Every structure is written in structure tokens, then in C-alpha cells.
Amino acid sequence: MNTINHKIKKTALAQVIAVVAAIFIAYISFMGLVYLSHGQIVASAVAATAIGIALVLLCFMAQQMKGAESRFASSIVKERIAIVSLAIVMLVPVVPFLHFFSVAGRERRVTRQFDKALAEVMPMFDEYDSIVDKRVANYRKRLSGVKNQQSKNYTKYGFNKHNEGMPANGVAVMRDNMQQTLRTMLAPPTLDSLRQDAQRWVKKAQDGSSVWNVFLLGNSDLTASAVASWQKTMDTSMRQRLYNEQADTTGFESAHATIALQKLGRLSDECARFTMPPFYAIPLLLAALLLLFFPYWLQSRHSKSWQHLWGKRQSPQPDWSVVVPRQNIRQKVKETKP
Fold first, then answer.
1. Using an 8 Å Cβ cutoff, are 55 and 25 in contact?
2. Nearest partner of 217 among 102, 104, 110, judged by Cα
3. Cys-Cys link to 21, which of 93, 180, 262, 291 (CB 3.0-4.6 A)?
4. Residues 6 or more apart from 55 whose CB is under 8 A from it?
């Protein structure tokens, strides 16, 4: 009884090891597929899950057919089919498995490129502020032409006719109000909220900057979309103009945003590029694949199954010791007749 329990525990442990190996292969393959597919997480997850399930099922099927205690001929056929199928399925994760370690070997280069792209995000807001300051300064310079009530061109500078004769301090107040109106129009309070959101976004993306983070390319794509959205918002604000302002309102196109988008776009191509994986990747893959056969190796085979396996099955031989000679049979028949 103790021997049987020991065999059961040993077989169960071997199956657990095989399942862990299959999960490891499937997960690394999933990471590799994500990078090969430029960030297609759902499709990569489905493919990796199918690979893992196929490896486990074929592994257990081969073990079960090897330990069959009846129908040895059909069990051996199924066993051989399972072994061949398992060997074929094992070839599927080789490329994505090695590709992930190829990307991992370039982790410093990949994360540095991602961090450089993120470093261009916040200067985009500083660039916008600089343009706003320049427009407000030019507007102030234009309004400075109205210095006192002797100015005869109020309407030219945005003052109404009833403002004529206004004292100098009143003109200064109106001039300051106009400048503040322009600044509020170009840089509304919502822009400060947008800046704070961008800071939190960049901080969170920097914390997840690792090739082991499956959402690295997803974060890259989301960051690119966010940068484009932020630039569009600032472009809309920059196109506004006061009625008495003479300024170029062609919009806002950030040089920093362009650089960030270019770097983020190249990041996906860099992760999809296949290079020679590190030296430890291939032995690690082989070790994981060999562990899938662990339950099969530990499974004992029935003695009759061995005969079928090697084609040495012998047909049953008659026991000639119980055969009665024909002559004796005839003699007994005659004796029985009346």
C-alpha cells in the first residue's frame, strides 16, 4: 500500500511540474507574441493560452496511454500520436519564447527610448506657455500705443468711443484687463488640469517602464494618443484671437510632441525586431520543454504493453499435454456403444 501511495504522489508531483513548465512556456511566449504583434495583447493571450492547454493535454494523454492496463494495441497507437503531436506543438512557442528574451536582452535600450519619449511630454506644455507669453507681450506692446486721453485712435486699439477722455490710470486698467482676457483665453484653467493629468500620466508610465511589463507597448500607444489629444486641445486654444489683436493664429504644433510621437512609434518597431537571444535563453527553453515529458518518464508500463510496443506479442500456444490421441478417442466411442 505504501508503494502504491508513493507512486501516486510521485506521479502527481510530476504532473504539477509539467503544468508549471507549460504555464512558464505559455507566459513567456505570450510576452514574445505581444512584442512581435506590436502590442496585440488579446490575440497574443488567446494564442499563448491555446499553446499552454495543448502542451498539458498532450503531455497527460501520453502518460495515460503509456500506463494503460488494457487495450494495449490501441493505447500504444494513441501514445505515439500524442508524443508526435507534443513534439510538433513544442515547436510553436520556440520563436516567440526566444524573441521575448531577445527583447529582454535589449531592455536598457528599449526602456531608455521609452523614457526619452516621455521626457518630451512636459516640455510641450512649457513650449505652449512660451508662445502664450509671446502673444500676450506683443498684445501689451500694441496696447501701449494708448497712453493717455490725447490718443486719437481708441477704436484702433480696442477702446470704445465713450472711453475718450479717460484718464491715464483708467486706460492702464483697461489695458491690463484686455491682456488678462487674452491670457485667460489662451491658457484657461482647464489647461492647468491638463498639465497635472499629464504629469501623473508620465510618472505612472515611467514606473512601468520594463520589458517584463506586458503593458509597455500598450502604455506607449496610449501615451501617443494622449500626447496627440493634448496637442489638439492646445492647438484649439491657440487658434483663438481677440477682436483687436493682430497675431498669427495658425495654431500650435509642438516640436516636443512631434519628437515624442516619433520615439514612441520607433519603440514598437524596436520591440518587434528579432535579434540573437541571450546565451541562457535556449537552454532555458530546452529545460522547460523536457520537463513536459517528466510525467511520461515516471509512468510505468504494463509488461504486456511492452510486448505490443516492440511488436513481440506471441499468440497463445495450445497445451498439447491435454490433447487425447485420435486412436484412443475411437476406442472409447466403441466401448460406449451397446
1. yes
2. 110
3. 291
4. 22, 25, 26, 86, 89, 90, 292
